[in-house]
Structure formats: C-alpha cells, structure tokens
Amino acid sequence: MKFLKGLLLIAVLFSSCTGDYTPKPRAYFRIEFPEKKYQNYQSDCPYRFEYPVYAEILPDNRPDAKPCWIDVAYPQFNGRLHLSYQAISSRKQFDQLVEDAHTFAFKHTVKATAIDEARINYPNKNVYGIYYTIEGNTASSVQFFLTDSSKNYLRGALYFNEQPKIDSIRPVLDFIKKDIDVMIKSFEWKK
After folding, report:
1. Is 62 within 8 Å of 70 (Cβ atoms)?
2. Which has the closest alpha carbon to 181: 122, 139, 138?
3. Residue 39 clears pLDDT 80, i.e. is over it
4. pTM score, whole prediction
5. Where are the domains of the chain?
6. Whole-angstrom Cα distance, residue 38 to residue 25?
7. pLDDT tens-digit map of 74-84
C-alpha cells in the first residue's frame, strides 16, 4: 500500500512538470479614462474656473485651512489638486508668497530628475503665474501659482495618495495635467 502511494505521488509530481515556463513581466492595471467634459466652479471666493465633471470640489479640512482653500478631488485616481487662496495686502506679502511657491516646488529636488518652470501670462484676464513640472518619483508632480500681482494669489499642488512611482502614475498624471491646463486657461479673478 505504501509502495502504491509513493508510486502515485511520483507520477503526479512528474506529470505536473513542464519545461516551457516563462515568467510574466510585472504589469499595471488598465485604466479607463472618462470623457473630457468640464463645468464651471463658482462660489463666494474671488475666483472662478472650469473643472472636470468627474472630479469633486471639496473644502480643505486641514486644521490650518483658510477660507477659499479647496481640493479638486479625483476619487477614481486617488489624487487631489490642493488649491489655497490668499488675499494680498502688501508687496512684501506678495513677494513672500511667490518665494514660498518656489521653495515648495524645489523641496522635491532630492527625488526629482528635473524641475521645469513655465510662465503663465493672460494679461487680458489679469492672470499671471508660474507652472512647475516636477519629473521623477516625487510626492507632487505639478505645482503652480496664479496671481493678479496686486490683490489675489492662488497656489495649486497635485498629490496622489500613493507611493510615488512615476512609471505607474504617468498615464493618470498626463490625463490630469490636461485638466489643470483647462483650469488655468479658464481661470478668472472676480471683479
């Protein structure tokens, strides 16, 4: 009986072995992107812009949040574009806000492979600023600020609630960057 069980075990082991095993490469899930459609964001805040219909506008609930600080949340992509508004009361304050935006963007230098700056300039709408593209495995890949240079300042930073792996988030990042471009191009200060 033991002999038969041993023979059966050996037969099963040899029959399950095949010589054509190929390891599969690591892959990521296929991401279904929604159709690009936009809606207007309007509130009591001194600004307005267009944002995607598949995103949600949420109040910033952090303890240090101020009025008109909001998040454009992308729940299907586990990401948020944090927008923080500040009224400008002096030239010194304005200069400090611009310097802070530069400092926040360049804090990613340790992990960034490149940081590019692009000027935002819409004089007909009195909207100016800088757009920072941060390449590499950084916590934030996009940061920017918008201002009218005298009364209003808005800073934006995109974060994903994932460990930064640029290879895995690149398709989503490219998709959301187009939404941010629409937001900036449609952005207006209220009179």
Report:
1. no
2. 122
3. yes
4. 0.80
5. 53-189
6. 37
7. 999 999 999 99
